[in-house]
Write a structure and sequence with these properties.
Structural class: alpha+beta
Cofactor: (R)-lipoate
Pathway: Amino-acid degradation; L-lysine degradation via saccharopine pathway; glutaryl-CoA from L-lysine: step 6/6
CATH class of the largest domain: Alpha Beta
Helix content: 25-40%
Radius of gyration: 28 Å
InterPro entries: 2-oxoacid_dehydrogenase (IPR050537), 2-oxoacid_DH_actylTfrase (IPR001078), Biotin_lipoyl (IPR000089), CAT-like_dom_sf (IPR023213), E3-bd_dom_sf (IPR036625), PSBD (IPR004167), Single_hybrid_motif (IPR011053), SucB (IPR006255)
CATH architecture of the largest domain: 2-Layer Sandwich
Number of helices: 12
Strand content: 25-35%
Function: E2 component of the 2-oxoglutarate dehydrogenase (OGDH) complex which catalyzes the second step in the conversion of 2-oxoglutarate to succinyl-CoA and CO(2).
Largest sheet: 7 strands, mixed
Number of strands: 27
Keywords: Acyltransferase, Lipoyl, Transferase, Tricarboxylic acid cycle
Distance between the termini: 67 Å
Length: about 500
């Protein structure tokens, strides 16, 4: 029986995708739900699973082709080809029997977070035949949102690695086979020295796990963790710490060398020597998505930025007056983001084109505000969306912002939580930025950039006074927003922040 493999629903307002990668070729046996290919849209990467077990027939849409929703991708022959696909699994199950009398334990892909169905094996810290302790890190997986470390489920010997570095694995899939119990001693005579090898790590007095990239680099360079000063949380050793320690050791080794003769001219390093000091790291999926979307925004929209400055005196005074009572009643701290969100919602009602978007030959005006709050994470910039922000109170906004920020840092945001925004606020001031020009978050037409609050001398009623000032930047799509509308929007935000009572009076 022939089954059609078609393009699934691609998400809100997305009508087409590009075939990025085929994981299977015609004639290959596939299991039900096994990934056949990967599609890329301007918002998200979509994987297409096999609708049934069988044999992949004809590939209709090749890599690089653009396809619409429900377009035919390939055909699948159900039934006959299903049996061969089970052979690798049978081999994996049979392998532990040869390793000794110990119990075979499967090392599985752990839960990867909401809406994340697959990951890439980035690094194996152990190889087949190595002795491992329970909860010792075996490998590191990388997803679009977060890196996941996989610990050993039991003490024993790593018998077989089923997914090598660079392989894509599904949530709940099998990574390796571990021989526990008696089989551990029979398979690896080197198991006895393992406690001694672990001694340097325990002698540091830390009970935190060092960064996987740092451990890998220390192993490559033969650096003792005891000689590296960790700068991460709770003394965790990061990759930068290892690089610093390695460069310090190299400098110490070369220090006693005699000075070169005065007549010797400095020798320029060769390209090969420069290349040896370079480090190439593959971009994460999240970073690739960020890069693609930012470039698409520049190529598509007519981005222009207008600037203003706001005196934060009144907002800071109001916050200082009520922050303790606010936190006591609502259980959340009163920050500046709720003031800016309220001010933007207020201004968007007067200048609705900043809250609109272009769809083909039409302008879509939104009669609601789904506010995107840009958040920096170790993996990259993400923009969780607070829906119907214009209907929320200060307390509701602060709670939502805090909750979305925590989920972003933990890598637990779903794609649904990052879609549907109508306007975005980006706060570069938390990193010390004094002035910047933010890039639009398509298909939105406006983004407000907040910056560092800095005291500056200002002329107030003919007198020079020191005031806490902040530069504001509004980047907007000039195809839909005129200069008058952009300036008006920014002035309304400035007025609301310099006199917060206007927000209460809806002025």
């Amino acid at each position: 029986m022939s089954i059609e493999v078609r393009v699934p629903t691609l998400g809100e307002s997305v009508t087409e995708a590009t075939v990025a990668t085929w994981f299977k070729q015609p004639g290959d046996s596939v299991a039900v739900d096994e990934m056949l290919c990967e599609l890329e849209t301007d918002k998200v990467t979509v994987e297409v699973p096999s609708p049934a077990a069988g044999t992949l027939g004809e590939i209709v849409a090749a890599e690089g082709e653009t396809v619409g929703v429900d377009a035919l991708l390939a055909t699948l022959s159900e039934g006959e080809g299903a049996a061969p696909a089970a052979k690798p699994e049978a081999k994996a199950e049979a392998a532990p029997e040869a390793s000794g009398g110990g119990e075979a334990v499967d090392v599985m892909v752990p839960a990867l977070g909401e809406s994340v169905t697959e990951a890439t094996v980035s690094t194996w810290f152990k190889k087949a035949g190595d002795t491992v302790a329970q909860d010792e890190m075996l490998c590191e997986l990388e997803t679009d949102k977060v890196s996941v470390e996989v610990p050993a489920p039991a003490a024993g010997v790593l018998s077989e690695i089923l997914a090598g570095e660079g392989d894509t694995v599904e949530a709940g899939g099998k990574l390796a086979i571990l021989t526990a119990g008696e089989g551990a001693a029979a398979s690896a005579p080197a198991a006895a020295p393992a406690p001694q090898a672990a001694a340097p790590a325990s002698s540091t007095g830390k009970d935190v796990e060092d960064a996987p990239s740092a451990k890998k680099l220390m192993a490559e360079k033969g650096i003792d963790p005891a000689n590296v000063q960790g700068t991460g949380k709770d003394g965790r050793i990061m990759k930068e710490d290892v690089i610093k320690a390695a460069s310090g050791a190299a400098a110490a080794a070369t220090a006693p060398a005699p000075a070169p003769a005065p007549a010797a001219a400095p020798r320029a390093p060769s390209p090969a020597e420069d290349a040896a000091r370079e480090e190439r790291v593959k971009m994460t999926r999240l970073r690739q998505t960020i890069a693609r979307r930012l470039k698409d925004a520049q190529n598509t929209a007519a981005i222009l930025t207008t600037y203003n400055e706001v005196d934060m005196t009144e907002v800071m005074a109001l916050r200082n007056q009520y922050k303790d009572a606010f936190e006591k009643k609502h259980g959340v701290r009163l920050g500046f983001m709720s003031f800016f969100t309220k001010a933007c919602c207020h201004a968007l009602r007067e200048v609705p084109e900043v809250n609109a978007e272009i769809d083909g030959q039409e302008i879509v005006y939104k009669n609601f505000v789904h506010m995107g709050i840009a958040a920096g994470t170790p993996q990259g910039l993400v923009v969780p969306v607070i829906r119907d922000a214009d209907q929320m109170s200060f307390a509701d906004l602060e709670k939502a912002i805090a909750e979305k920020g925590k989920r972003a840092r933990d890598g637990k945001l779903s794609m649904a939580e990052m879609q549907g925004g109508t306007f975005t606020i980006s706060n570069g001031g938390v990193y010390g930025s004094l002035m910047s020009s933010p890039i639009l978050n398509p298909p939105q037409s406006g983004i407000l950039g907040m910056h560092k609050i800095q005291e500056r001398p200002m002329v107030i009623n003919g007198e020079i006074k020191i005031r806490p000032m902040m530069y504001l930047a509004l980047s907007y799509d000039h195809r839909i927003v005129d200069g008058k509308g952009a300036v008006t929007f920014l002035v309304r935000v400035k007025e609301a922040l310099e006199d917060p009572r206007r927000l209460l009076m809806d002025l």
